[in-house]
Amino acid sequence: MIASQDVDVVEEITGEIAFPTDGTYTIVLDSKYAKTILQLTVQSAAGTSTLTPKINSTPLGGGANSVTTTKASVSHSSANAMSVSDKLIFVLSGTSSDCTNLAFTVKYTRKITMLQYA
Questions:
Q1: What is the distance between the alpha carbons of residues 53 and 16, in angstroms, rounded to a whole number?
Q2: Which domains are assigned to the chain?
Q3: How confident is the model at residue 1 (pLDDT cuts 50, 70, 90)?
Q4: What is the per-residue pLDDT across 50-71, written as a single tens digit (0 to 9) for each?
Q5: Quick one: which of 105, 106, 110, 115 is 20 to 30 A from 91 by CA?
């Protein structure tokens, strides 16, 4: 007999924008599976910016990230569910001219089905 069970798996997307300027950056163009974004952590090598994460055109609940040379995280507990084919974008604003190497980590969960042989 085979039993199935859905399990939440925590995963992450990491990246860096070398020379950030105000504008929109696509992080996930076409999601291949549903996921729930839990947290966004950011840090720059120099300069500052404000990063607003959005799923399609809806900002994630929890607010924007203030990007500085100090690592900082914002938790997202509402408006944070991505469906198949959704887009994840970052909107940068108020970016200082000396802002460089904006590093980010997006922490999320997704469900997978585990099969267990009895």
A1: 15
A2: 10-110 (2.60.120)
A3: confident
A4: 999 999 999 999 999 999 999 9
A5: 110
